[in-house]
From TrEMBL:
This is DUF4232 domain-containing protein. It comes from Streptomyces pyxinae. It comes from the Bacteria. InterPro entries: DUF4232. Residues 42-89 have a biased composition (Low complexity). The lineage of its organism: Bacteria, Bacillati, Actinomycetota, Actinomycetes, Kitasatosporales.
Amino acid sequence: MTPVVPEPRAPRPRRNRLPRAGLVPVCVGVLALTAAGCADPASGQGAPAAAASSPGSPHSPGLPGTDAGAPTAAAPDSSATGPAPASKGAGAGRGPGGTASGLCRAADLGISLSDADPGAGQIHYTVRLTNKGASSCTLGGFPGVSLLRKDGSVIGKPADREGASHGTRTLAPGKSTGFTLHTHNKGMDDGGCWEKPALLKVYPPGLKDALTLRTDAPEVCGDTFRTSAVGG
């Protein structure tokens, strides 16, 4: 048999192809542009490293700023304004005798009783209080007056107040002021008379310490026993 020889095929036309080496730079450039355009601006991913610190940012290296976590300067403490001034009331209002408002002390006062001054059925006695201290002091208001027996018990009742107050009197050393005791003359009233005292007890106005004077006067009659204010 005669062998069959295949007919030769016509050659295919060759296509012009770009060299593979030329594709690499083009692809790299395309990928870089794609990555830059597809980065999410909200997430901040894919942003250039230079954009991490913008000009004027507190964290920008080499620029002044305040760290958000740094403590701020403390406000001045209004309580630290220095010590409060000393009160002017400390020790104020003290008199020469050391008592409040310059009152005379009972220890610095002398007491005396005048003779009876009768008139129209009334009898008056003047009680004098003298400043025996070295400094001036004051007295004002009504005293407390009682008549005592030898054992210290009270005869009758303390003297009632009579008349108005005469204000405060300032007594220089050696000076005196006084008040008046008032009762009725014996036999003028049906009430009779109290027994005669052994002591006259006087509380100067505003003081808790009393003065005592050994005396048998006044003899109170008609249940009338009254005292005026100091200075009256």
